[in-house]
Amino acid sequence: MVITVELVARINYLARKERYEGLTDEEKNEQQKVRRQYLDGIRQQIVDAMEGAGYTKKHDTQCECPDCKPRYDS
Q1: Which residues of 34-52 are buried (b: 16+ CB within 10 A; e: fewer)?
Q2: Which of 21, 41, 47, 61 is CA-nearest to residue 33?
Q3: CA dist., res. 69 & res. 61, Å (int)
Q4: What are the chain's domains?
Q5: What pLDDT is stored for residue 21 in this prediction?
Q6: 3-class secondary structure, 3
Q7: What tens digit of pLDDT does each residue of 50-66 get?
Q8: How far apart are CA 37 and CA 65, in angstroms?
């Protein structure tokens, strides 16, 4: 997911509208969608940066090691 100027502008517009006028149910759903897109984009940038620096992913949600398992079960 790429974070575009248009995506940030839409997030900001909906935030201002929510603050001053309120949002319709459709706009609330859109707001959640665009915020999720933004956060997914940030997360992907972090993963790309870490991989570019030579770090590799060692664990995931299916990991059964004693260090990870308690975090995913709670």
Answers
A1: beebbeebeeeeeeeeeee
A2: 41
A3: 8
A4: 5-64 (1.10.287)
A5: 97
A6: coil
A7: 888 888 766 666 666 66
A8: 31
